[in-house]
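User: Before I run my own analysis I want an independent prediction to cross-check against. Here's the chain; please return only the structure tokens and, at the end, one sentence I can use as a sanity check.
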Amino acid sequence: MNVSNLFKIAIKALGNNKMRCFLTMLGVIIGVGAVIAMLAIGQGSKNSIKAQISEMGSNMIMIFPGGDTRGGVRQSSDDMQTLKPADYEALLDQSVNIANITPTVNSSGQWVNGNNNYPSQAQGVNTQYLDIRQRKVSEGEMFSENDVKTAAKVCVLGKTLVDNLFPGGTDPIGKVVRFGSIPLTVIGVLDEKGYNTMGQDQDDLALVPYTTVMKRMLAVDYIQGIQASAIDENRTEETIAEITDILRTNHKLRDDQDDNFTIRSMQELAEMINSTSSMMTMLLAAVAGISLLVGGIGIMNIMIVSVTERTREIGLRMSIGATGRDIMTQFLIESILISVTGGLLGILLGAIATWLIKLIANWPVQIDPSSVILSFAVCTLIGIIFGFYPAAKASNLDPIEAIRYE
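Assistant: Structure tokens:
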């Protein structure tokens, strides 16, 4: 018997039990849809993270104090004061791989403008911060190197601070605000960035000369960190090695002593986040894939029932010349048709679910074509694997006993 006739017989058999056939497909439909949606969320998150890290500067390097061990206990960065302005100056003078560099020193407190106030930080930086973080001033101007040298009482505000301190669209340029008890003149407003993938408001910040934060707000002689950018993304590792050598020399550390500072790059951070994101995506996809397994078991179950119900039909077909191979092929075709049709509907469900997730939750999502191909291939494989036993059972029936079956 040719394959086209077997397909016709299989389609007719499935059409005789439409509702049962659909319910059998449901496990596969849900499984495929869930897998595609989960992988779309994971892929969208990774792409969003890559885009935001690229915006921040994929060649950015961050240096934190701490990292050494004292009395067998590793100190936290908050307890360490190992970075000094002299370290920043040494890197500025001696490094050949650094494009831009700024000290960082932050102070938390309340920003006040008349009756309006908002809790946030004063981020002490220099003029190169904007180039490192790829930010721009949308209104007014950035403070100057002279403002840094003189510890001037000026600031550049992010959009979130502007909206809270100057409601109603008041122009903040030239106005005096207070950070705690320190009056600061607003000379600029940063461009709007919105929230990043980690849910952090990138506009909830205020830039102040780092010398102003050190001398007027915190009264300290150390810096809390250093941010830099390599002249080339491909030379990030080389730049980190150079920074390490300069700081170890500046701190007079012996060869047997650990670093008393910690260096992190955006590439390292991106790899860590992508690795975590991939693990979570695969975990979610594996959980969603369980329903595919359940769907496969459902296919096997319903095909066994179908073989039992159609025992006499199988006997009659064998008695007029159908071979065991023909019978096996027919039932395998039925099983594969159920699985593949369920897979196609599942792909449609996954696309709709992905669209709804983006529309309602506003999550970054992207359907990877490979996930669609993989899901379809798995569906076909499920139809073959879980349909094989019922098909083999049907093909091994004794024609005489089958005809007698009640």
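Sanity check: The two ends are 27 Å apart (CA to CA).
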